[in-house]
Amino acid sequence: MNNKTKTTAVMNSIDIDVGGTFTDFVLTLDGERTIVKAPTTPHDLSVGFVNAVESGAEKVGLTIEELLPRIDIVRYSTTVALNRLLQRQGPRIGFITTEGHEDMIHIGRGAQWVDGQIISERRNLCMQNKPHPLISRDLVVGVKERIDSKGAVVRPLDEEDVRRKLRTLMDRGARAIVVCTLWSFVNPDHEKRIREIIRDEYKEFHVGFVPVVMSHAVTAKLGEYERAMTAVLDAYLQHAMQTEICATWDKLRDKGYRGTFLMIHNSGGSADIFKTPASRTFNGGPVSGLMGSAFFAEKLGYRNVIMGDVGGTSFDVALVVESGVRNYEFKPVIDRWMVNVTMMQTISIGAGGGSIAGVDKNGRLSVGPKSAGSMPGPVCYDLGGTEPTTTDADVVLGYINPDGYFGGQMPLNKAKAEKAIKDKIADKLGVSVHEAAAMIRNVIDENMASAIKREVHMRGYHPEEFVLFAIGGAGPTHLCGFQADVPVGVVFPAAPVFCAMGSSIMDIVHLYEQSKRLVFMEPLTEKLVIDRAQFNAAVEEMIARANQELVSENLDPKEAKYSLELDMLYGGQVNVKRTACPVLKIESDADAQAAYDEFEKEFSAAFSPLVVNRPGGVYLDNFVLRVTVPVKKPPIPEYPLQGKDPAGAKTGTRECYWRELGKTAVTAIYQFEKLQPGNELVGPAVVEAELTTVVVPPGRRLHIDKHRLGIMEYLPGENPAQKALNAKAQRTQRAAKASA
């Protein structure tokens, strides 16, 4: 666009989240939202993208050519980077490092043996192997140069040595080059010069042009192995990402789009599509869901929220604690490699609608992590799938209407699902088809509930203190199964596209990081000795870079809000805590004291006040500048409450199997869109929405609040946590009576 992007008004936007099974689409046009789902097209993601946009345009009575010129911004999150990595579809990469450190990426860290493995795999030590390297040893060379930890040149760069070894790499088949020299994030001169040499040898206009990724440009942070692997992954995924994203961009341009195209980052921010490293896109969808959860939690008055996202392939969990989402993974593992990018903390397990069920040789039923995906998909899709899945079980149990799935656009074959469960599960276990389907559902629900309990308890919280947001296409369908000890679950009408909706209400956020080790508090004396000049210079440099990028993206720096976060730790400890700094610059003792006080408060909350170690001193490791361009969000509408009777939304009845009852029962079916605020229904019941289904089992109650959200609660005495407490109290009373 020629004009600045509108941020003070509600922007017309398209938000897309490409998952393994479906592509989710949210259109915000003139303040009104329209949601659409389209099947993901793994062979070419741009096809599914355009299909979703065309469906959305049709829904508002426009052609795609009429819609796109009215759109100000497109935000895109995708798993294409991870998918390509899992499939090992990358180019041969050459690696240039400091002479003597050629084995760095192959030696790795000690944890490399188990990085990225699930717990059961880690326990089987005899089967552990290091991951097969993305770069073979013959494509690694060390060049004569050395820079020390303070940025001083110890050994000048031998340029002829670089040219000779570069030609060796190219002769061995390298088609991209990663440059990672020691301490380059302190002084990047040698890495920059090596790139210039590569450009001189293989120019941009030559057929043999070679992409070059410099480690300091990807992540200017301490940690040589992690910095190197971040650069390697970016180089490895760059071509696949470029092909997929550029194809999408070209199709949008051909259809008349002239606005901004942003990629959602796993840091909670976003950036121009052509300024996004591949590693920043990993897990972008769940992060969008987390940011959306934080927004709705604030508006709805919930301080602690669990996001439970059940898709076709995975179940993603993230937490909003005390209305904040600043929980990060500082050195996350992508596939099998530890990298040095800061990601919002989410966990993912292989559990979803497409999770495949099977019986092992010991007669044990397992569900997932392997998934049927979108092609061939569950057996009931009738697209060639033969292995029973979670979705097949939901269809057999009667919860999903075969004729109404995917808004009626995708009829399901219930008979094939029943046969697959009978042949592959029921007959092997000696149970009925209904009981086998209920067992499949129970296993997947328990897996998801365990993931939530693990995540909440490991952070030192209790599930009873949280509210659960059930999102994703299968989230409302399985909410009653993974809700466990959480007293309240919330179902959104837009739950199936919640991650895309989350990006639609996200402010435009850019993050900039710079590693710099500074002493903040002197050991023993506990005196604040932070070097103000170095501190302020680092921040000013990041602000200047941020302003330049904002202008290049048609954003007005005057509308931006700047906030600073610091990675700090106590001397003698390894636990780094990212802390919100109350000031952008330290210009007085009061500013330094305020920054330390905030660190101590957040550190104490995260790790306990008992481990605060002032005598050990405090060290600053990393600066993080968060630049936010606020985007006006549509308000959450409120509606007057009606009566409790939901009869007006009832569409009929259907035979459903309820494990709680041990039998099938005639079950009332309701239409979600017709339920009125104030309506209340008690299970067993099934509520059908356009793109999802809410299952309300016996012992639960669903009522519609003033925002038309579904609130799932236990009936009195049915909450398992409360039952456990009551049982414990009864045992205590009996013991007291016996002793008396």
Automatic annotation (TrEMBL):
Membrane spanning stretches: none
Residues annotated as domain Acetophenone carboxylase-like C-terminal: 532-709
A GO biological process held by the record: glutathione metabolic process
GO molecular function terms noted in the UniProt entry: 5-oxoprolinase (ATP-hydrolyzing) activity
Residue span(s) of domain Hydantoinase A/oxoprolinase: 227-508
InterPro entries referenced in this protein's UniProt entry, alphabetically: ACX-like_C, ApcC, Hydant_A_N, Hydantoinase_A, Oxoprolinase-like
Domain Hydantoinase/oxoprolinase N-terminal, residue spans: 14-201
Any single Gene Ontology cellular-component annotation: cytosol
Top-level taxon of the source organism: Bacteria
Pfam families associated with the record: Hydant_A_C (PF19278), Hydant_A_N (PF05378), Hydantoinase_A (PF01968)
NCBIfam families the record matches: AcphenoCarb_ApcC (NF042975)
Descriptive protein name: N-methylhydantoinase A/acetophenone carboxylase
Lineage: Bacteria, Pseudomonadati, Pseudomonadota, Gammaproteobacteria, Nevskiales
